[in-house]
Amino acid sequence: MRRDIHVRYHLIVTTINRRIPTWAIDIALSAVLTAGAFVDLGEVDDTTILALGFREPDAFTAVVILLQTIPVAFRRRLPTTALLIVSIGFFFDRNLNYPNTIAIFGLLFVFHAVGSELPRRRALITGWTTIGLMTAFTISGIFAGFVSIGTPLIVLVFTSFPFILGLESRERRTTAAELARTAQQLEFDKAEAVRLERARIARELHDVVAHEMTVATIQAAAAQRLIGSNDEGAKKAAGEAERAGHDGLVELRRLLGILRTEEPASRTPQPGLQQLDTLIEQMTEAGLNVALEIQGEPRPLPPGMDLNAYRIVQESLTNVLKHGGPDVSATVIIGYRANGIKIQVIDDGRGAASSMGSSDSGQGLMSMKERSAILQGSFDAGPRPGGGYRVTVSIPYDNR
Prior knowledge:
Elements: H1 2-19, H2 22-42, H3 46-52, H4 59-69, H5 79-95, H6 105-117, H7 120-144, H8 151-226, H9 231-259, H10 276-285, E1 289-295, H11 303-323, E2 329-336, E3 340-347, H12 352-355, H13 359-374, E4 378-383, E5 389-396
Parallel strand pairs: 1-2
Antiparallel strand pairs: 2-3, 3-5, 4-5
């Protein structure tokens, strides 16, 4: 129930603050207290003064009232200054024993502002120190004979209660601000995750399309050249083109299935370095002579690392096939080291060095560079001194 009351109070205050500026509320509150205090003062008659032993109001009474009400107007902007001025007014009011007015409530609003507006440590020191001094002052007033014996308790409750409410208000605002920041960070993380996933899918789409469509195009062209002179070879080339197109469609369906939340993605296993023999066989049938060299003891790799390593080799060989020129050959070297794997794809193509700067190969190089960066690895690519092209990627095992 207490939580419900706090929530309702917070909603009411938030709604009011959104519609009316806080400075306008404080000025209006100060004006109401000032007017009410002077009305109270005007209603005090001689009988009341004599009966309760109050001091006769004079010109200084107005000053004392203003000291307790005017600071309410700037209590949020200057809470310490407002507390000091109101405390001085309260001191004169009680010490001179003027008639009670609504002006004393200025102390309540200022203590609330001290708890809610100042930094917590400063608020605690300022608030409790002032409360202690006021309580001590009223206790001394008992011995001086100008306050009753119950006044110190009244002052203690009257000042500490709004101060504690102010501290709770500040904590609620701090918690709400932290929740807002957390929600904003979650939204940012969600958007970033979507962006990274889109980039990953884009890389996958590029690699699949670049590889499978390149193989299909080359095999289709070979089939055209062989029709009539070598029907068996043309049939084989057409079959390879069909297989490449089919494999590309399977990969595309798998990636697009990820984007469709209402449809489960294909459960086709992701390729890895264990499938390099199949990849090299496809490249060989497409006309690229590829040799595979394994250095060190092969070891199982994490799925993400295994997939990206495979895609890097696939993209490198696709670029060689597209830009390496006629009678090109390539060597794929997979080195299993103590701290990671090293991938090298070396070719002797005559056209590689001059064609790698084209837009399609540039996209492939960027894809490989991004894949190595995701795994905290290094990437290097460039022409070889003796001709041809070299791609070198090093990926650490611990790439979290």
